[in-house]
Amino acid sequence: MEAVVPIALRPYRIEAPFAHGGRGTGPAAAPACLRRHLGGTARGRVAPERDAARFCRRLARRVAAAVAAGGPFLVLGGDHTIAVGTWAGAAGALGRPLGLLWIDAHLDAHDQASSPSGALHGMPVACLLGEGPRPLAALARGAVDPRRLVLLGVRSYEPPEWARLARRGVRVIGAGAVRRRGWGAVMAEVRARLRGGPWGLSLDVDALDPRQAPGVTTPVPGGLDAVRLARVLHGIGGEAGFVGMEVAELDPGRDRGGMTARAVARIVRAVFS
Ligand SMILES: [Mn+2]
């Protein structure tokens, strides 16, 4: 019998240092920080600018080029606003809506009316459903199939966000549900949801427990264990339909001794193993 040698996938790496979607601009430094932890170089870098819709349109073109080149891609943000560009670009290149596993402490499903802060990084899921603020929603409309969208690790949200996702049939699995049901059952459900076409992975670093990953803009206690998450995502980048991954909300200025960046690098390497 032949030994099965794991083949490390080489993702098409794109740096996306947009950080005007939240308070502070800490995540702008994340791509350079992750470059040090991951090694290697990016194939593309979207130059930073203030306007979110313009940035996301340029990111979308980069991601579309990565998909056309055969992918898979790895987008390193930036705050979570970048998701509008990442998934609009991927879906546009493929010509069909995507499934999406969205790992996050928050629902990111506000619009301007419901958001207490008005921060764009709390709105990308609404935009991907075509419902958020105008220019971003128009860019992302139709990129994601709500029935194949799963939010995982959630533990902080406002009722209007919950209502929006429930109305659109989006599945939300809280961090508490992961602990109660166990990773095996949760990942079986996630895979069943994603099945049926191309799909992607969006990792908001604040999904992780702040004791292991303090380097984020909006930490919430009670998060996912980084080591377990890396284990359950090991090799998922080689599974059928996978198109790419994005990482958002790493804030190196709030990190402690690089522990958050190391946790993220471990997860990224696992996904592309
Ligand atoms: Mn987020």
Explain this structure to me?
Helices cover 36% and strands 17% of the residues. The protein is α/β, with parallel strands linked by helices. The chain has one domain: Ureohydrolase domain (Arginase, Chain A, 3-Layer(aba) Sandwich). An eight-stranded parallel sheet has the order 2-1-3-8-7-4-5-6, with helices on both faces. β5, α6 and β6 (171-174) form a beta-alpha-beta unit. The longest helix is centred in the first third of the chain and has 17 residues, at 52-68. Manganese (II) ion binds at residues 80, 104, 106, 108, 204, 249.
Q: What's the arrangement of secondary structure elements?
A:
Elements: E1 12-16, H1 30-38, E2 44-45, H2 52-68, E3 73-77, H3 83-94, E4 98-103, H4 124-128, H5 134-140, E5 144-154, H6 159-167, E6 171-174, H7 175-181, H8 183-194, E7 199-204, H9 226-233, E8 242-248, H10 259-271
Parallel strand pairs: 1-2, 1-3, 3-8, 4-5, 4-7, 5-6, 7-8
Helix pairs in contact: 1-10, 2-3, 3-5, 7-8, 9-10
This protein binds manganese (II) ion.
Manganese (II) ion (MN) binds near residues 104, 106, 108, 204 and 249.
Keywords: Hydrolase, Manganese, Metal-binding
Catalytic activity: L-arginine + H2O = urea + L-ornithine
Cofactor: Mn(2+)
Summary?
The protein is an alpha/beta fold. It has helices at 30-38, 52-68, 83-94, 124-128, 134-140, 159-167, 175-181, 183-194, 226-233, 259-271, and strands at 12-16, 44-45, 73-77, 98-103, 144-154, 171-174, 199-204, 242-248.
